[in-house]
Protein: Tellurite resistance protein TehA
Organism: Nocardia macrotermitis
Amino acid sequence: MGESDDDRAASLRDLKPAWFASVMATGIVARAVSGAGWQWGGDALLIIGLLAFAGLTIAMIARAIRHPRAMAADAGNPAVGFTFLTFVAGAGVLSTGLSTHGFAAAALALLAVAAIAWLILCYLIPAGFMVHHNAAVGMTGADGTWLLWVVGTQSLAVAASTLPAPWAHRFTTPALLAWSIGCMLYGIVAALVLSALFTRELTPATLVPPYWIFMGATAISVLAAAKLIERTSDHLVVVTHPALIGAAVVLWAFGTWLIPALLIAGVWRHVFEHFRRGFDPSLWSIVFPIGMYGVGTREFGVAVGESWMVTFGRGEAWVALAAWVVVAVATVVRYVPGLRRVVTAE
């Protein structure tokens, strides 16, 4: 039987902005496998990402029109609010993908959409938390999703610095400024999130997949630095060249150091604590950091001439693709009723 009108209305009302993480993940895995040599696979994933972005954007506009209170409640919820920035990051990642294929006009259009959304959301979301402060949640509501503030900002830097000529030169300075803002935000937001982790009880239910964004935020910052390093025609980039490389090395090292901790946390959550839950859309927030880590490593290696980083980044692309396939299959099984019944019956 098909979905009833009431079911469809409830699905639209409950649609969360975090679903755009699937677009982020698909776009970066497309870039990862293309860089590893599987061009047509990367092209196919980019098309899937563009279709998903279009569909989710239409659905979110419909939700805003039909369920404005639900949208406003999400924006004011510390556990959900920053997930609106997955829209910005998704648009930025797709803009980058279009640039690498030579579609300058489409890339510019998506970058403009991402920049406008970023200008609105990066002020509106935190301002809403401060104005409507709830002492019951306060800073203890900070979790991995807050790092999307950084990811959204750095996605603009990556997209702007990847544009084809002559646009890349015109947008290099704004890209550098966005990268700088993103690095500052990482230090501030990471401190808030860690403070929340140390001031509340850590349980399997609170150790959610979006904590992988801790690593993803470092990886996209490294990628943005790598693209900027290549823009040697811009004076401001030239004078900050040593700082760009130094910061990228520090961020890459810290992101790499985080991976074992995140894996151990997952083992503790699922193996030792036996945490079980049905499909969670936040699983896409694991795929994106895995893909971004490989791409950032590879392109930073190219920029600074470290061949081992290039080789490692290309190899890691297949890990990212495997993660994407697992979560994509789980998504289809969960949301296609016929398949779900078949799997359940088996």
